Amino acid sequence: MDVVNQLVAQGQFTIIKQPLGFIKFLQWIFAIFAFSTCGSYSGMFKMSVECKNRSESDLGIEVEFEYPFRLHQVYFDAPTCKGGNPERLFLVGDYSSSAEFFVTIAVFSFLYSMAALSVYCFVLEKYRENNKGPQIDFVVTAVFAFMWLVSSCAWAKGLSDVKTATDPERVITLITACDERENRCREVHDPKVSGLNTSVAFGFINLILWIGNLWFVFKETGWMAAVAGTYMPSQEKQPAPDSFAQGGGYAQQDPYAGSQGGYQPEYGQQGGYNEDGGYSQGYEQQPTSYSNQM
């Protein structure tokens, strides 16, 4: 219990509230629904064969079938209405490949989602280190999304074939006694396949979840930042003008020079030492001349 308490104390379970962890939790739940509704299915349908000689009739022929739907191994006994031992008949079709493939993908999705949630909660820093964890997670998520697409479509087609092969009206055509008009054959009970229909629905729900999870895992990979770094805007800023002239000196233009009329005084300053060793300084002021026209 101490080890469990330490793990719980060190866990960062707030990640489950974020889209990255919350979708993984949904994937874990719906994967359980997918393989449980398909892998644990067992169904039964019932028929009746009423012969001309009522003593030879069988009004309760039950046929049971289950996962993985190897129907060619399912058999039942039907009366011949001619006396003697009943005939043994087998259903038609083997749909185990699509059903087992669907369940296998669901089980592996369940295991991977559980492992990913454990990593998110306990070693999230190592997961994000160098972006290697998110990149591997993205690739695996993309593979599972594709596998869910293939397995769900295959199982949907397989389920349609299972419904056809277990339709009592179709199975009655296999009974020899039903070919004679004097004998009466009819279905008594149809198989319930609502659970199998739900499994197909869960398969496509898992497909949507895994495709949607690609975006949130992609944001963790760092590839978006790499792509954004190569982006060049359509309107670039103009470079600042050179502040130094080509001659090597610093040139600055007075915004007020030459742009305004009126009074513009000029000052000249000369300073230096004369021959007597004294310092002379003078100012020369040249006021702007005015010309008036009378």
Short overview:
This protein has 294 residues and is an alpha+beta fold. Helices cover 46% and strands 16% of the residues. Helix 2 (19-39) packs antiparallel against helix 3 (96-122), helix 2 runs antiparallel to helix 7 and helix 5 packs antiparallel against helix 7 (194-221).
Task: Give structural notes.
The protein is α+β, with helices and mostly antiparallel strands and 294 residues long. 46% of the residues lie in helices and 16% in strands. It is built from 8 helices and 7 strands, in the order H-H-E-E-E-E-H-H-H-H-E-H-H-E-E. A hairpin with a 5-residue loop joins strand 6 and strand 7 (279-285). It is rod-shaped and about 80 Å long.
Name some characteristics of this structure.
two-stranded antiparallel sheet, 3-stranded antiparallel sheet, disordered N terminus, 294 residues, 8 helices
Structural class: alpha+beta
Q: Provide the spatial order of strands within the biggest beta sheet.
A: 2-1-5
Topology order in helix (H) and strand (E) letters? HHEEEEHHHHEHHEE
Total helical elements: 8
Average residue pLDDT: 79
Q: Assign an overall shape.
A: rod-shaped
Biggest pleated sheet: 3 strands, antiparallel
Oligomer: single chain
Strand content: 15-25%
Q: What's the total number of strands?
A: 7
Low-confidence parts lasting 5 or more residues at pLDDT below 50? 3-9, 231-294
Rg from C-alpha positions? 44 Å
Distance between the termini: 112 Å
Relative helix content: 40-55%
Question: What's the arrangement of secondary structure elements?
Answer:
Layout: H1 2-10, H2 19-39, E1 42-50, E2 58-66, E3 75-78, E4 87-90, H3 96-122, H4 124-128, H5 132-165, H6 168-172, E5 184-189, H7 194-221, H8 223-229, E6 267-273, E7 279-285
